[in-house]
Design goal:
Layout (H helix, E strand, L loop, with lengths): L19 H7 L7 E3 L5 H17 L5 E3 L11 H11 L14 H8 L11 H18 L1
Parallel strand pairs: 1-2
Length: 140
């Protein structure tokens, strides 16, 4: 699939959270990289801490990296505060993040990628994913 602004690569659609049971059942290989995509809210971050703790107990933290998603727009500081807390906890965090845009639910309802949505800011949502993809590829 040729993706605008990011030729030659595509990213898999990930569930909002990965439970330890999902990891065990599907024998997910973490060594090749596994993004953990929480939004920057308290409940989601609690689930993230539990997931990371479970992975540590299994000795399977190599390759994980946290991707903040649904980050509220400025002037909210939730994204920055969550990132700071994760970095202080010495957890790997993507520099890129997926901001919360109205175009994402529109794309989901239409069953199309966000860059195909008729919304003046849809391209910003797609650009967020392009940045994440570039960061993943540069780490290979």
């Amino acid at each position: 699939m040729n993706l605008p602004g990011f030729s030659g690569y595509s990213l898999p659609q990930l569930p909002p959270f990965c439970s330890i049971n999902l990891i065990k059942q599907n024998r997910v290989r973490l060594g090749s990289g596994m993004p953990l995509p929480p939004p920057p809210d308290v409940l989601a971050l609690e689930v993230l801490w539990k997931t990371v703790s479970d992975l540590r107990n299994l000795g399977r933290t190599e390759g994980i990296k946290i991707l903040l998603t649904m980050v509220p727009p400025w002037p909210s500081r939730e994204g920055n505060q969550a990132r700071q807390g994760l970095l202080e906890a010495k957890l790997p965090v993507f520099e890129a993040q997926i901001r919360r845009w109205a175009a994402f639910p529109k794309a989901a309802l239409a069953g199309v990628p966000v860059y195909k949505v008729r919304d003046p800011r849809a391209w910003l949502g797609w650009k967020d994913y392009v940045r994440v993809g570039e960061e993943v590829v540069s780490a290979l």
